[in-house]
């Protein structure tokens, strides 16, 4: 049966973890996967999470099946965070939200639903995009193409080309957009550029699918969420996948969601019924614990305030690491303009290094980044940054 099965390549991001774990180099540094580590290189357990967990454990309940679409209080809390609890779209009930297995799970539910709805549609992702976007939508059965995004020469976004590609896309094309903290480049659209993109999406009748995996890591929770507000104002139907992996440091709990903004409550009810079929036939219904933790934090004012503070702490530390990286690279002799590193937002820096240079970083120095040149600046700290900068300087 399996004689003809070929060995699949390692995952370009998670596969690096396997390589990293097997590397005996004591000085190794993992800047591959998008995970925030604290100033001591440790994965944080947020205080708000620990407190919510303690409360949940003390009041431990039996574990029945959850509803197919997840915990109602959680789904409502997600809507409040993403769209604003008082927004007409939320209060009128025209958004269908389901709990998902992380942001990836939210994307997959949306992709499977869209494939049933509009099987001939094409999917456009940014060039480049998160490695898994292409694979996920391809596996859902779509032809996936890319719209121009990164401009290597300008160290920024080729906005003219991006807009032209969207203008040329046929109606019904699904356009995957990074709501904030673009993965992998770190370059985000300006508020004015977002408005122009939304105008084209609307006039061309394209289907926006916003991937929101880093809310709070750019400018702030509300600031990063403002783009969603612009989409609501435009009065179009759109998808948002939400991840709490990074913002709650709950990677392994797989807590996320999918929201579909519809025209009416009745439409949302029908969409929800279809999303439930997708979920039921994939994994039946979601797990309980992580979503309970997130719901508890988001709905308890003191814990919510603590979360905002802790998330701000992560954001501020990442920005400090960006500045320190520039200083250390200059000290290590790099002459080129490095201001792009502090212009980028979120966990990643698209370093501009090529695959051969990234492989040298790994092989000679034990510094693991993605072959695309992406490094996770959220994994830098005062102890490892000097070695990272010296190694980068050595390979450029
Ligand atoms: C990343 O891009 O490193 C993260 O989103 C983790 C993942 O699942 O790839």
TrEMBL record:
Residues 28-391 form the Aminotransferase class I/classII large domain. CDD domains: AAT_like (cd00609). GO terms for cellular component: cytosol. Keywords: Aminotransferase, Pyridoxal phosphate, Transferase. Coiled coil: none annotated. Its cofactor is pyridoxal 5'-phosphate. One of its GO terms (biological process) is L-phenylalanine biosynthetic process from chorismate via phenylpyruvate. GO terms for molecular function: identical protein binding; L-tyrosine-2-oxoglutarate transaminase activity; pyridoxal phosphate binding. PROSITE patterns: AA_TRANSFER_CLASS_1 (PS00105). It is an enzyme of class 2 (transferase). It comes from the Bacteria. InterPro entries: Aminotransferase_I/II_large, Asp_trans, NHTrfase_class1_PyrdxlP-BS, PyrdxlP-dep_Trfase, PyrdxlP-dep_Trfase_major, PyrdxlP-dep_Trfase_small. Its EC number is 2.6.1.-. Pfam families: Aminotran_1_2 (PF00155). Homodimer. PANTHER family: AROMATIC-AMINO-ACID AMINOTRANSFERASE (PTHR11879:SF37), ASPARTATE AMINOTRANSFERASE (PTHR11879). Belongs to the class-I pyridoxal-phosphate-dependent aminotransferase family. This is Aminotransferase. The lineage of its organism: Bacteria, Pseudomonadati, Pseudomonadota, Betaproteobacteria, Burkholderiales.
């Amino acid at each position: 049966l399996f004689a003809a099965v070929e060995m699949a390549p390692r995952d370009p991001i998670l596969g690096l973890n396997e390589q990293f774990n097997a590397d005996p180099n004591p000085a190794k540094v993992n800047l591959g996967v998008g995970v925030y580590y604290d100033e001591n290189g440790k994965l944080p357990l947020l205080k708000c999470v620990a407190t919510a967990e303690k409360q949940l454990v003390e009041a431990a309940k039996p574990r029945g099946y959850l509803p197919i679409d997840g915990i109602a209080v959680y789904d409502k809390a997600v809507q409040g965070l993403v769209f604003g609890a008082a927004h007409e779209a939320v209060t009128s009930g025209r958004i269908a939200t389901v709990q998902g297995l992380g942001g990836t799970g939210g994307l997959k539910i949306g992709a499977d639903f869209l494939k049933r709805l509009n099987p001939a549609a094409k999917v456009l992702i940014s060039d480049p995009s998160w490695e898994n976007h292409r694979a996920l939508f391809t596996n859902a059965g779509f032809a996936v193409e890319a719209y121009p995004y990164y401009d290597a020469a300008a160290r920024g976004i080729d906005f003219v080309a991006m807009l032209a590609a969207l203008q040329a896309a046929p109606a019904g094309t699904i356009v995957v957009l990074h709501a904030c903290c673009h993965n992998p480049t770190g370059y985000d659209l300006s508020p004015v550029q977002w408005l122009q993109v939304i105008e084209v999406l609307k006039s061309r009748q394209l289907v926006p699918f916003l991937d929101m995996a880093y809310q709070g890591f750019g400018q702030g929770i509300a600031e990063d969420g403002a783009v969603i507000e612009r989409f609501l104002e435009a009065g179009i139907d759109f998808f948002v996948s939400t991840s709490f992996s990074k913002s709650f440091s709950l990677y392994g709990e797989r807590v996320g969601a999918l929201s579909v903004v519809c025209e009416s409550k009745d439409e949302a009810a029908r969409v929800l019924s279809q999303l439930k079929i997708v979920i039921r036939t994939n994994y039946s219904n979601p797990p309980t614990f992580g979503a309970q933790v997130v719901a508890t934090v988001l709905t308890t004012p003191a814990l919510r305030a603590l979360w905002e503070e802790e998330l701000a702490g992560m954001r501020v530390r990442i920005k400090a690491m960006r500045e320190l990286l520039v200083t250390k690279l200059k000290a290590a002799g790099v002459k080129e303009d490095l201001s792009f590193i502090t212009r980028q937002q979120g966990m990643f820096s698209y370093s501009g290094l090529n695959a051969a240079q990234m492989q040298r970083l790994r092989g000679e120095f034990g510094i693991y980044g993605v072959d695309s040149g992406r490094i996770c600046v959220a994994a830098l700290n005062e102890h490892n940054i000097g070695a990272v900068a010296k190694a980068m300087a050595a390979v450029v």
